[in-house]
User: What shape does this take?
Amino acid sequence: MVATPEPKQAYKVIGTRPIRHDGLDKVTGKALYGADVRLPGLIWGDLLRSPKVHARIKSIDTSEAEKMPGVLAVVTHNDFPAASAGEIDTGEDVVNFKRDSANIMAADKVLYKGHVVAAVAAVDRNTAQEAVRRIKVEYEDLEPVRNVDEAMAPGAPLLLEDLVGDDLGDEVTNTNVAKHFRHEFGNPEKGFEESDLVVEREVSLQMVHQGYIEPHNATAIWDQEGRITVWSSTQGHFAVRSQTAGILQVPESKVKVNPVEIGGGFGGKTKTYLSPVAALLSKKSGGRPVKLVMDRPSVFQATGPAPGGKIRMKIGVGKDGKIKAAETVLRYEAGAYPGSAVGAGGKCILACYNIPNTRIDGYDILVNKPKSAAYRAPGSPQACFATETVIDEICETMGWDKIKFRLDNASHEGTRNADGVLFNRIGFIECLEAAQKSGHWNSPIGEPTRPGNVRGRGIAAGFWMNGGNKSTVDLMLQDDGAVALNEGSPDIGGTRASIAMQAAEVLGIPAEDVHPSIPDTDSIGFTATTGGSRVTYATGYAAWEAATKLVEELKNRAAILWGIDADDVDFSDGTFSSKSDPELRIGFKDLAGKIGETGGPVSSTASVNLASAGNGYAVHICDLEIDPETGKTDVVRYTAVQDVGKAIHPAYVEGQIQGGAVQGIGWALNEEYWMNKDGVMTNSSFLDYRMPTSLDLPMIDTIIVEVPNPMHPFGVRGVGEVPIAPPLGAVPNAIHNALGIRLFKTPMKAGSILEALAAKNGS
Amino acid sequence: MRPPPPPPPLLACTAASHLAFDFVPYTGSHETPRRFSTARMTWQAEDRRRNMAKVFIPFNLRKYADGASEADVPGSTLGKLIDNLEERYPGIKDHLVEDGRLKPGLAAVVGHAATRQGLLQKLEDDTEVHFVPAISGG
Assistant: This one.
């Protein structure tokens, strides 16, 4: 279903659903993934990982491994160059190469189970694995820091003794708090005094993983001329280049990264773990190509999950149905090194509502867990859990309609977000209105499938700001009228199609006639990582600009062909024509066949660096059925409403919305890093880390709202991230509607429901 | 082909062709009015007018700004604005600029969008400027 509050443009390609350009290769197994890379002389690497959660490394003895036949190289942190200790802005991220280096191979301490301590390259994988087993490491055990409360407690063990924390602008030492920031506007205390109802709750969340199917991998060659060539599954091959160069202290121009297909990332493949190690092993092996592929436990234990933590939320409302004030404290687990998504959480947490008095405190906190990374709208789902749970409780307490209350307080153009920034044209109200009119919201919840079961309905809203940044697109016209398109954005969600379609729309040709490729870092202009829901917006913008340039050049060629002035040439619907002589007309393909005689090959390029824009909103409705005897919870109906600006390829937009919703439902109901008392993750397999599958859920219904983004030629907003946030509110609100209990901790699994029911019943 | 699209999405742009960007006027009733201008004028003319921007001082830096949360500060570019802010509140620049660039981890929002032009970002008269944590996505 598509709801369009503003008039649609008459597009011919945009809004259609062509088969994706890479579809056949992927469904027939021909697509090249990282683990498929085979090169002459290829050898295998393997990694020794720490069994300890927090320990000092007293010694590493690699002698037995080095003696093994077939072993070609052994690497420890001593083989890494001293990387820069300062924070560096790479143009798309802030990095600290010293810490990144210590994260991919421990220096003096191990900070989480699975932290890499040494690496081996050998003639085959078995030999490498056996050699790893022969490395002896002596540890001095240290007390683990398992959560934000322990990390902030007086006298807590320190993870990084040299950390200088930032506490509201003041430098702090001897701390596990890397950063404490605050946004404050208006007078929250006065706002609460003027409120007729104030609700304050604290929610807590466990770390969760993105759960991508394909493990991390990298193959690297460090050749005799000092050039490093990498093949890696990544969301951003330019980021792999900068991180590899920065950690190994070589110029970026010496590193070339080939993007291979990616089997899921969701933010987790924005970081580099293996490429620098594979490159170092290659160098020590005399330039042999070295391949590293993680196993599943390593992916769980030692890559970048979404942060857990605690959020305190306090909201005050008046009897007039208006929110008077909000105050919140977000404490996010950064993991072993600074850099959680708490900054983004702070930006998202009150973004749905127009609140005159706000205070947001955010804490980035070190704990003995893997360094967290981005996961689809990083920081926003946690924030949504806190905000939407309290909003629901306010509506229940006051007896207010849950959509009307949100409409009465909804952010829209001109509203100031709680970080102070004004919103431009946004579509939150349109999303709420679409939800209000939806068949789901206006249908009875239905009878339970079994006697004794109960059903409940929840609703929640979510926000993500969507990214811009740098993108490059090259177009090359072929003699047969097809157009080769090179883009710098790895395709993780169907963006070959969405970028090609935007070029095809301008060129007046079918999407199938645009042939997209994603070349290596030496063969396309810099393009930032595929993340932040930026690609269809920013790389699409570059495609539009490159296509517009191509049309202008083809107008010149038609003018040469006809012996007229280029200003006399018009272009519409794939046909060039003379404005003054109606007899002079030629189609795009026919002109392409004549470009040789009009001056030679025609190509164009466009590079953009776009401001972040196009804020995205979503509203989700969730129906659950719960068995009160077992706590088993099933989603029986689910609808996701989202403002996407303009759906370039509606099927892929629906897929993004459905995928995000499913991941959010899994986060709410099932998923967690189950840590034992020693801080060790004990469920590092897909058997024990329970993610929902298609058998667990009904079809996720989608309602696409199109409020055009005024910053984009076709009105595009980011799509992929917003939909993971609302389930963290919709699911607990549905549980409350069904059972009358509120759960303030993820996951809201069967045991938690039974415990809450027992507490409610006094048993 | 559809009508010409809007210019590149920077609120304050450097090329004259980019200044023709019209936003849908805000018609809300009770929120803070938008501060950014859609006036069409050359930057040379703006420089002569000595643009005045409204700077929102981040909470962490208010201690360097006599507790002020906002300040009207002149500057035709973000860099010049920060220099002028430093004149008024000595010491504040060190918390905004490092090695001639915005500090790593800091983003400047000009109007309603985080600028990608850094200190070179042109400022329109009456523009809002915010300094907020830089955000990257997943």
Observations:
- The longest strand of chain A covers residues 323-335.
- The CA atoms of residues 494 and 652 of chain A lie 7 Å apart.
